[in-house]
Amino acid sequence: MFYKDERLALFIDGANLYAAGKALGFDIDYKLLRQEFMRRGKLLRAFYYTALLENDDYSPIRPLVDWLHYNGYNMVTKPAKEYTDSMGRRKVKGNMDIELAVDAMELAPRLDHAVLFSGDGDFRPLVESLQRQGVRVSVVSTIRSTPPMIADDLRRQADNFIELDELREVIGRPPREPRYEREPAVEVTES
Questions:
Q1: Taking residues 42-60, what's their average pLDDT?
Q2: 93-108: per-residue pLDDT in tens?
Q3: Domain boundaries, the chain
Q4: What is the mean pLDDT of residues 35-46?
Q5: Is the omega angle on the peptide bond into residue 147 within 30 degrees of 0, that is, cis?
Q6: What is residue 93's three-state secondary structure?
Q7: CATH code assigned to 7-189
Q8: Which of 25, 34, 121, 148 is deepest in the core (most CB within 10 A)?
């Protein structure tokens, strides 16, 4: 499903990929992930999208963001908005969908294959638009979690669905708590 000479780019929805890996019981090794897709084709870019809590003295994701930035990933971040819900729980709102979609559309004329690491159904129109431009689109997420982490319409729209659990041996490692490998311990909501 990948061709050695095709130009490809990775678009990683950080919070979504973290949640999918956590649901499957493993952490993502981002060095191995990048190496795997460099092996599969001509990797032009690897984008990683996440919202950051700017007002915290220490952000648990900051070391990961810094590591990725120094190790070949294009980091796309923005400040997250923090609020307390009606039950008194701390919540963070930080949707990166627009940033991801704009980058994918801008890069589309120079791509043969886009790999989207997200199960968010909001990306279905993006996938459809990329396909109309001649770009093949693979979506990486999981149906093996309960509930599945991928929207059915996104899975149907993609040219190829890659089950994240099947990449466990290639890009995964057992869960542990290194500081640079964690998304924020607060729930990120879409909107």
A1: 84
A2: 788 999 999 999 999 9
A3: 7-189
A4: 97
A5: yes
A6: strand
A7: 3.40.50.1010
A8: 34
